[in-house]
Amino acid sequence: MSRFRMYPSRAQAEQMLTHCAHARYVWNLAVEQHAHWRRWRKSAPGFVEQCRQLTEARRENEWLGSGNADVQQQALKDFAQAKNARFTSGFGEPTWRRKHVHEGFRVIGTDRVPEYQADGSPKLNVKTGRQVMGRSVVVQKLNRRWAQVRVPGCGWVRFRLSARGKGAKLPDAKTFRVTFRNGQWHIAFAVIPDPAEGPGTGEVIGIDRGVTVTAALSDGRKLNCPQLTTRERAQIRKHQRRAARAPKGSKAKTAEYAKAARLKAREANRRKDWCEKTSTMLARCYDLVRFEKLNIKTMTRSAKGTVERPGKNVAQKSGLNRSILAQGWGLLRQRTGHKAPGRVEDVPAPYTSLRCSACGWIDKNSRKSQAEFVCSSCGFTCNADTNASINIAAGQGGIPRPRRTAGAGGTTPPNQRSSVREPQPEWVGIPLF
Ligand SMILES: [Zn+2]
């Protein structure tokens, strides 16, 4: 995916917002159709049937008919894809799209280009033997920094070629997606990037993800995901406070909320940027990347509980959840996996932070504090996060007790199993009884 910031004129932006509205309307119709389905009913209409229905609806409904047919049909195609991928995509069943929140549409290229097989020979139709023509988006480079793309009903719309190096060549895609979020337009071309080449030296790196240090590498480096500054956080609070005090439904209220949202979007952008750069670095510099296996969904479960049984320390837990999610752990793992397919491994997480990376001894007393690790068996001293990442690089940690051969360690007596647990935080979740 290559994504650029788009700069439409006022008229173009208006037209594109209409496209967004049409795409959203069609998508929501499809969601409703499928939500209506029950086991004993006939199956909900598929893509082809929906396209036929769309043609009918366009004839009857003037507002819909005035819009671009391709944009509306692509919304159906998006829906069909989302529906097919509901078990694998991680997003689940396709759900409603809301105005101001999910603004976007897909455009299929209007240019026709001959398609080729993987070996370079022209792709021919099996029946007629004629050349198969595929779609391609119409893009034009204006200069080193700017390019323009054809959007139906809008003519040429300019976008900024921001990626250095990549900026030299224009994206070659069949479709693109336009989105409008937080007052900014973006264009994303549907291209699958080539996987990054590893160095070929067989070098292995372990990565320990944490809240204090976002990613501690086994070579001793500590990488931190940029957060908002104290000043920016204070600004968010200021705008939220002003919004809360503004009269209901007033213009000021909307404006203040918009300002707060823009600052929050800045944080998300920073995080994304950092994840992209770091994952590219990891994919290029190492042949094997090992992460500890984390279940972020269960880690960030809410402590709220139910009305009858409210949880304890709900605010602390939600604060911790927020700082976990602010690290972008999941995104870093996912993007590294995309860029280095087959070269990323997940190591079971238990004991990686308590095991001594020098002798293999596991003891909770070795971990003196958040940052300090002093082995209680061999005296090995190290930063706790770095120690954990060395264990991860070795693929170790999953064994509950040190091996018999492990240096001066020996074995842990069976009655002391509880001593090898990680230091547990005070329980802040839903009461178990
Ligand atoms: Zn040790």
UniProtKB/TrEMBL annotation:
Region Disordered, annotated ranges: 394-433
Gene Ontology terms for molecular function: DNA binding; metal ion binding
Family assignment from sequence similarity: In the C-terminal section; belongs to the transposase 35 family.
GO terms of biological process kind: DNA recombination; transposition
Family annotation (InterPro entries): Cas12f1-like_TNB, EH_dom, Transposase, Transposase_put_HTH
Record keywords, A-Z: DNA recombination, DNA-binding, Metal-binding, Transposition, Zinc
Residue ranges constituting the EH domain according to the UniProt record: 287-331
Name of the molecule in the record: Transposase
Pfam families in UniProt: Cas12f1-like_TNB, HTH_OrfB_IS605, OrfB_IS605
